[in-house]
Here is the input.
Amino acid sequence: MSPPIRQTKPTSLDDIARHVVRPAGIVSTGWPAVRDKCSSFGVTFDDWQTEAGRLVLAKRADGIYACSIGGAVMSIPRQVGKTYFVGATVFALCLLTPGTTALWTAHRLRTGNETFAKMKSFAERKLVAPHVQQIYVGSGTGEIVFTNGSRILFGARERGFGRGFDDVDIEVFDEAQILGENAIDDMLPATNTAANPLLFFIGTPPKPKDPSEVYTRKRAEAISGADTDTVYLEFSADDDADPNDRDQWAKANPSYPNRTPASAMARMQKNLTVESFLREALGIWDAVDTVAAGPIDLAAWELLTDAASTPTGDGVRWALDVAHDRKWSTFCLAGPRGDGLIHVEMTAAQPGTAWVAARAKEMQDKLGGVPLTVGVSSPAQSLIPALVEAGVVVDEMKPGEQALAFASFCDATDGVSPKIRHRGEPALRKAVTGARTKPWTDGGETLPRRGSVGDVSPFSAALMAFGRLGTVEPTKTAEAHVVFA
Here is the structure.
């Protein structure tokens, strides 16, 4: 980890990065303390790294990192300095907060070993060594233990590293372009008890065969404008860049030519295929990995916002859906307004599923017995027995009916005179604008779970409620399991 060459003038991320996505609610940043701690070790940063540090460590009014939920996602070409920046930041955070536990994982053993070797060398520096109690070198793993009780553990995901940990404060997913759902499922719960967790997803654009669903999804969600809890930073050349154009080299790599010399770029160009050079050195994502347009984009959805929107109370319908990972459950409602338009809203959303049956009974009583719509083959279907036991009247919506409701909902947001209005709820906006489509066997399109961006269950609940308008009659009977096929 050698200090970078200082750039000669301040650099704004917006001026040099292809994409800069900021989380909402930023009021301060923890970067000055990290910068000063690094400075005490003789570590300095390029201007882009300083600005990235301000953004990654930005905090909301409660002192929690603004990206604590979605993490800091960075798509940055090779030879730019991302490992140096993240490594120094994690080191400083461990020293500033005693007892911090950080996991640094790469997909490949070789990459993990290289990163650990760099961090070990840094820990052995004259100004740093007094703060380090012990350095452990294992077979494919490593650990740096600080005198204040903090520690950084290193390992490769291909060897199963990362499972079984708890009380983890920082997780770094290096080579995030090779990060599958199973790996993230194994590792992410380790931060559940952390007071202020911080996640880094750092990598380069994935190859076509890379298992990159997590990285690709997080990029798409951030760029779509539907994510308010994530930092996303991308350096890349133009999509149609000439690989010989050195202006494009500079556009993709803010460290070129000061710290990344032309010879380093030329070496990559000489030894990589054109496609690999565009990906690895210029940060260009393949067309198949770029953000696919959903049926409802953010601009169209925002035009339908009416903060005072409300249904008349006559003919209201409602539905339930659950996220594919079962971390959230959502009720949505749809009903006619006095002006003939259709109002949609989220009526309740909470973590997990244990609360659903009791809340459903309470809400159904208030709605005069209107059946609760639940999608067949959806994650919410498993809750039907508990709902029925609680006295909730359930209306099961078949997949073909859901496909029709999806089409009708999208149609009602389009055209010169769209029929739907909503109150601008962030979670519903995120779900609607993150939705993607897949063909339905009987024609039309459906709303896939994993093919979409983020948790689309609020959208699924809203479109089912919308699809039942005028088709399911209210009933005062709350004892029978009513099925409307």
